[in-house]
Amino acid sequence: MSSVALEILGLGLCIVGWVGIIVACGLPMWQVSAFLESNIVTAQTIWQGLWMNCVVQSTGQMQCKVYDSVLALKPEVQAGRALTVLVALLGLVALMVTVAGAQCTTCVAPGKAKARVAAAGGALYVLCGLLALVPLCWFANIVISEFYDPTVPTSQKREMGSALYIGWAATALLLLGGGLVCCGACSAAAREDLPFPVKYSAPRRPTVNGDYDKKNYV
């Protein structure tokens, strides 16, 4: 696969992953109610996210409430908010940098500098993926720890919501896409270092009778 195709494929994966992180950030399903043992009443389901709590009734009616105080939030929620917003903003910067350095654009003059700009954009996307992993794994660790903690009441146990799985999938796309962009940029930079072979052809020499020598056409 050519370096241009690698950059385009990687950029596409990064954009999808970036949008996935934004979607996961806004969804309230980071933690959902766990129904086990005596807690089998499914009249309502509780969703907990970074920005709001939602209660879904068995009739399909849903009521959501935004958190009143930021300082009263748990540390993992505050960190999750900060990191996901940072990833969203950093992803926008990475998009502009990658597009500027891509070989299919003319924002930067072709050469090593253009390849370095594209590689910087890919590295920013990889950084976005690593930053997004922090709140996702933090929430997952808390959910699993409380789920198996016998001191936590059954009614307060939670399970991992769909937002976590969407976030992990988006993180994988960011890491993979950023790596492909970096590989494409490195291939382009290596190609710039290679000297292009120059071939010379001998001029055609006319014969005594004015015709060109036939060996020039062999």
What does this structure look like?
With 218 residues, this protein is α+β, with helices and mostly antiparallel strands. Helix content is 55%, strand content 10%. It contains four helices and five strands. A five-stranded antiparallel sheet has the order 4-3-2-1-5. A hairpin with a 4-residue loop joins strand 3 and strand 4. Helix 1 runs antiparallel to helix 4 and helix 2 packs antiparallel against helix 3. About 2% of the residues have low confidence.
- Provide the low-confidence segments as ranges: 194-198
Strand content: 5-15%
Q: Major β-sheet, in short? A: 5 strands, antiparallel
| Number of E-type strands | 5
- Give the neighbour order of strands across the main sheet: 4-3-2-1-5
The helix/strand series, from N terminus to C terminus, equals: HEEEEHHEH
Spatial extent as radius of gyration: 28 Å
> What oligomeric assembly is this protein in?
single chain
Shape: elongated
Helix content: 40-55%
Mean pLDDT: 83
Structural class, by secondary structure, is: alpha+beta
**How many separate helices?**
4
How many angstroms does the end-to-end distance come to?
Answer: 35 Å
